[in-house]
Amino acid sequence: MSAEAADPGAPLRRRSRPRIDLRRLGRVALRGPVSRDRLPDAIGHVAEAHRAHHPDADLTILRRAYVLAESSHRGQMRKSGEPYITHPLAVTLILAELGAETTTLTASLLHDTVEDTEVTLDQVKEQFGDEVCYLVDGVTKLEKVDYGAAAEPETFRKMLVATGNDVRVMSIKLADRLHNMRTLGVMRPEKQARIAKVTRDVLIPLAERLGVQALKTELEDLVFAILHPEEYEHTRALIAAATGPDALLDTIADNVRGTLRDAGISAEVLIRPRHFVSVHRVRRKRGELRGTDFGRLLVLVTDDADCYAVLGELHTCFTPVISEFKDFIAAPKFNLYQSLHTAVVGPGGAVAEVLIRTHRMHKVAEAGVVALGNPYAQDHAANAASEPTDERADPTRPGWLSRLLDWQESATDPDTFWTTLRDDLAQDREITVFRTDGGTLGLPAGASCVDAAYAQYGDRAHTSIGARVNGRLATLSTVLGDGDTVQLLLAQDTASGPSPDWLDHARTPAARIAITGWLADHPDEAKPDPETVDAGGPGADGAAAPERDAQPAAPARTRSGPRATGVLVDGPDAPVRLAGCCTPVPPDELTGFVVRGGAVTVHRRECPAVAAMREIGRAPVGARWADAEGRESDAGCRVTLVAESFGRPRLLADLTEAIATAEAAIVSATVEPPSEQRVRHTYTLQLPDAAGLPALMRAMREVAGVYDVSRAQHPAPAG
């Protein structure tokens, strides 16, 4: 295998088209306009590449765009010495080879005219229409953005959001950066390093998220050569010295072709060389490179079913490396990527990685959003009839970019937006979790139930109290895995909010921004208050948090408790809260205590916390229900019940069904680890009326295996 096969200086279609001679192209460009019916020679490469993807494309608009661009840039030179028109031509060729549609190519030819010449946006709009004008304007705005550490965060946010409304703007910008990186050698080393770092930190992650792998991989290699020249040269030497990988991969490829031919599967089997950074990563992972580490097999088929047929044949006729199998067809990556990944053992024990995908998947894997064409063409008539708006509904926009547009609106602080964006770009892997309603959520690796709650419910997630992950009760801090099924549990008390501890478990920008915003808006309510710990989360010994400055044990969380509008207390007017440790309901006898902030917390008189408060010198406050007959307010009543049972299958499901049948809502629930085949369940429930409590407890006791149901009576801790 030659080093040229993975040379970052080579064009995108290395094997089929030689590198453009920019000086010759510059001379052609300077010949001036041509007749109206003739395509300028200077864009012959663009026309050829464009027609390869779009045979019926009308090239008239490209001719007109070239004539305007050439005449506008005439006399301008690049630092490398070529006429400036060679830059928009090269950028347009990159996009044409990726399969961009005509409107994108037209805007690409004109992308620097408004910024660097006398051409105005009004002229572009008049001659080429609204779409081209919109794209040129977006790229022009991006040209004004400094992506470095000193970038103005608010400016960057506005520009990035503007491009997010049409992904073609960012596609042009990425192609523009790629050509600039290819010709960066004329600049001073320190400026090369600065541009390379910005490309590495911002633009390469954006290319990854937009799925434009062809641009991303070449940008990676160019940055690698500038920032790590010694390691780059070492990798180049390894590739150049590798004499046998082609033979090894060729042998395995021939065997794969024969296997698929015998199975009657029509497939194209190719050897796909790794680029420099990929080889470098493999070497760092494995230490010593194997002969087959310099490339991978690519199997292209017609439809999805053929992908799995190929996989079955390979795993049947070869020894598979099961740990290498990944199915990105059933669960596509966040950037639209789909493919089956596997690895098989060939002759002599050589291991070859194999990618299996359809031709359509391959096009999207290489070009990402660029390959999806004009996302607005089908809805053009409908859009024209609707009210004008700055926001565009893009049906092909990847999930990450859609989420960016959502959470940036909540990040009112520019610095918060910038920091969050950089952190989000650093996430290089995404997982898919399934909702119980059949939907899916795309989350970064390491995301927790907190992230899932905000991804599914937005601000409603402030009332989250727990989750079920794969059918089992879980805390909000539980880290989710790819393919998990998650059901989020929300409290009925809409006034409750998140705990500051949630920030320790939030990985997504949406979750962190929403939690931070709520805590900033509710500084008093956000402070931990042991008086209002949910009873659903006692420690392993069943103890509730005492009424003193102590943090509750996980999985309990602190939040403002419900205001007891049905309770009257003696003394001055003050907020009244029902204690979470005993959750009194009518007709329980009550005792209150003044706690921090002047609020009065009301307990059942027999609650162990009452004795503990008296022992430390707290004076009780008289409290009673507002209605002498024990009727509760319209909000119903909240109570904590403990069910003790023998362990058996479906016990949790049967108990939950009994609770639902009694028209009670589960606010929070915990299940302690089984001890000697006995299980203890603790539920905090919201009932429409306290009168229904006895019937509910009877229904729970009737569940098979349950031998006792009682009101929560947590022992008060000493001292």
Summed up:
The protein is α+β, with helices and mostly antiparallel strands and 719 residues long.
**Whole-Å distance between the termini?**
76 Å
Structural class: alpha+beta
Shape, per Cα inertia axes: elongated
> What portion of the residues fall into strands of 2 or more residues?
15-25%
Helix content: 25-40%
Radius of gyration: 32 Å
What is the overall pLDDT average?
A: 76
Low-confidence stretches: 1-37, 378-398, 526-565, 628-635, 714-719
Helix tally? Answer: 25
Profile the largest sheet.
6 strands, mixed
> How many DSSP-defined strands?
20
Notes on the structure:
It is a single chain. This protein is α+β, with helices and mostly antiparallel strands and 719 residues long. 40% of the residues lie in helices and 16% in strands. It is built from 25 helices and 20 strands. Strands 1, 2, 3, 4, 5 and 6 form a six-stranded mixed β-sheet that branches. A five-stranded mixed β-sheet has the order 8-7-11-9-10, covered by helices on one side. Helix 5 (102-109) crosses helix 8 (130-143), helix 13 crosses helix 15 (276-286) and helix 21 packs across helix 22 (509-521). The model is unreliable at 1-37, 378-398, 526-565, 628-635 and 714-719 (pLDDT under 50).
